[in-house]
């Protein structure tokens, strides 16, 4: 059951990104439902845990703090590479693909559905499963991280891929520390929320949060 869910979920996320890039789908109509179903499927395996190695309060506090720091680091990085035209253009395109939904709805869908589904699946299910499969937390963690980065490559978007590499590393480390998905979810959620509420690049006037 676990192996089937992991393989299907990972392939589905990669295909969803490919569909978005090719204009055959959108972040809301294609990727969001896929991530939601991945999260539900992970929960149904009855294998996911919130934070078995660290107290709930500690995991949440560190996760929230890490999310805020990650957002500030993202702002600093985007500012530092403002002369990198391709990165800036693709960052703007990422916001534009989110359409003109009200900020409150974008936050609910992005944090409450997308980030939740992704973290429950990758840090709650895949990371522990890989660690058990190879009989080693470090190797399993590394493999799950590489798989997470790989499924973001079909996005063909430098901003998304960079987020997968750097954010994925942070969320994977938090998952390794806690043994579950709570801290990574808090981090991912705060970062996503801040990215939507306070964009790091200039956006079109009718974009989310305008």
Walkthrough of the structure:
The chain has 210 residues and is an all-alpha fold. Helices cover 76% and strands 0% of the residues. Helix 1 (2-21) packs across helix 5 (103-133), helix 3 packs antiparallel against helix 7 and helix 7 packs antiparallel against helix 8 (182-197). The longest helix has 31 residues, at 103-133. It is globular, with a radius of gyration of 16 Å. The model is unreliable at 205-210 (pLDDT under 50).
Keywords:
210 residues, mainly alpha, 8 helices, 0% strand, disordered C terminus
Beta percentage is under 5%
What oligomeric arrangement do these chains adopt?
single chain
Radius of gyration: 16 Å
Number of distinct helices:
8
DSSP strand count: 0
Percent helix among the residues?
over 70%
The coarse overall form would be globular
For the record, give the distance between the C-alpha atoms at the N and C termini, rounded to a whole number: 44 Å
Q: What letter string, H or E per element, gives the SSE order?
A: HHHHHHHH
Q: Mean pLDDT, nearest integer?
A: 92
Q: What structural class do you assign from the helix and strand content?
A: mainly alpha
Largest sheet: none
**Which regions have little confidence, pLDDT < 50, spanning 5+ residues?**
205-210
């Amino acid at each position: 059951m676990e192996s089937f869910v992991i393989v299907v979920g990972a392939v589905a996320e990669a295909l969803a990104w490919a569909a978005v890039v090719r204009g055959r789908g959108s972040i809301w109509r294609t990727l969001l439902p896929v991530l939601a179903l991945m999260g539900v499927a992970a929960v149904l395996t009855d294998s996911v845990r919130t934070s078995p190695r660290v107290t709930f309060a500690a995991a949440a506090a560190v996760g929230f703090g890490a999310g805020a720091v990650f957002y500030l680091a993202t702002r600093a990085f985007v500012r530092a590479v403002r002369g990198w035209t391709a990165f800036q253009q693709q960052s703007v395109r990422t916001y534009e693909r989110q359409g003109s939904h009200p900020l409150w709805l974008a936050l609910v869908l992005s944090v409450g559905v997308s980030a939740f589904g992704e973290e429950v699946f990758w840090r709650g299910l895949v990371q522990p499963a890989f660690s058990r499969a190879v009989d080693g937390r470090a190797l399993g963690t590394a493999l799950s991280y590489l798989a997470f980065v790989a499924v973001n490559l079909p996005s063909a978007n430098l901003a998304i891929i960079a987020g997968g590499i750097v954010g994925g590393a942070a969320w994977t480390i938090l998952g390794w520390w806690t043994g579950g998905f709570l801290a990574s979810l808090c981090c991912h959620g705060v970062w996503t929320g801040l990215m939507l509420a306070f964009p790091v690049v200039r956006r079109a006037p009718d974009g989310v949060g305008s």
